[in-house]
Protein: Siderophore esterase IroE-like
Amino acid sequence: MGTTDVSTITLQSSAEFSVAAKDGQMYKIQVAWPMEWQSRSGHKNIAVLYAVDGNAMFLTAAEASWRRATGPHHKGNGVVISIGYPLKGRVFSPRRNYDLTPPSPTAPEGFGGADHFLDFMQYTLKPFVKSMILPNTAIEREALYGHSFGGLFTLYTLFTRPSLFDCFIASSPSIYWSNFYILTLEEEFRKRHVRQQPSLMMYYGSYEQHPPRWADEDAEKYEKRRQGAEERAMTDSANAMYRRLKDSGLLACVTIKEYPKEDHGTVIACSLSRGLTTFFEEWPLKEEGS
Structure:
């Protein structure tokens, strides 16, 4: 038999950085930029998409952005920046429970650190991006993408720091968390005056609230899973929030999309690809039919 050379896979047009928060916590920052760029410096009119849960999202987002570059409608100049953790052997860190959930009166221990994470993004990461990742580059607009707890975090950021991003992409947001506490923050947000009106995209899968029974699942386990999905009420909660925010007039645009026959895990690829494409190529965001 002949020998086979084995080498480590390396990604072109990408880089990884370790950035420390003020409390010493380390974050893995992964970046993907257009393949036609010769360097990361000196560009204009750049769109930047930040994605939390970076260990699970970066490759999906990077490949989606690179694939779009082959299409006829591609406008270029889209950069993906993911925020993850120094992990091995898994894609989700327990630290996300703290980083991605809002402080609330009923938050269990180890949760509710969204403000600390936002401070890191606003005061440490964004300046690092401008000075080290995209030096001498004019960033035209920025978006935040998050799924599940990340989607909850995206909504929390919108309701508490609406000027931090131009667009918020909330995929399957955990609206139910901590007795639906995010609804209290939404109500407070709708009473505010927002000078810079951002846009919001919401996505979810139809199976999240109405899951089918698996082929090898017994009736008791399915009923328990079905009841849990019904209590979390993804479809109902997301659509109710969409209607309220649309009627509030506080946002430049609000859209929502249900993906049929997708569940909480499979909808990630759908929402990330669609959200990224819309933000990079179809900006400013428009409601369907407008």
